Amino acid sequence: MRISKIIAALLISLCLSACVSSLLIGNQLQSKLMWSFLKPLVGFDPNEVNFFEAPIIKDRMTAILGDKYEPTMKLLRTAQEIQQEGALFYVASRYAPSQVQAVTDKAGLVWNSQTNQMAVMLIKDGKSEIFSEQIAGAKEAITPVFPQELQNAYSKAQEIQKTLNAPAEAMGEALDKKLDSTIDNVKQEQKNKIDSTINDAINQQIPDAQQPATN
Prior knowledge:
By secondary structure, the chain is of the alpha+beta class. 51% of the residues lie in helices and 13% in strands. It has helices spanning 2-17, 28-38, 55-65, 69-76, 148-210, and strands at 83-85, 88-92, 106-112, 117-124, 127-132. It has a 5-stranded antiparallel sheet with strand order 1-2-3-4-5, sandwiched between helices. Helix 1 runs antiparallel to helix 2 (28-38). It is elongated and about 100 Å long.
């Protein structure tokens, strides 16, 4: 039964690869074909079924990620299962770092069956990013939807990064205030020197002006 599901999914993948260039967000026909490809694979190890190498997946991922494709795939290949949460089909990395990290690297790939939008979440070296397909020329960007597992990971990474950045930001503000104060003091000193020079010059001219002219 599992083998027949895999074969069916692969056949659908081949059909989809022939028309991958026409995939559009909101395209109901393409969405149904993608559903037919992914639904039988839920519960399978994505690496065992060559999920990431299917043209319909790989082509869309490379278009979304660009030069972030390889670091994202390095994490995603640790995923152990293709999962479904409502209308969302996704894979999430299970990366276990050898050393303790403040923010654990994580990646997730999500396809939304309601919008036919594919999105990727990447947490790498403490930096969290989201990449998603968009409609060219659209007035507003379509906000991707992520399953709870990835939402939690993203929120946690954001909170930790904010906490880590807080001391540096506070120090930066203190340095800015100190610099502003120093500049103000220098300006005041220069002003005082100029005022003193002008006053001295005026005082020297006054006695000269008061002396009577001699014939």
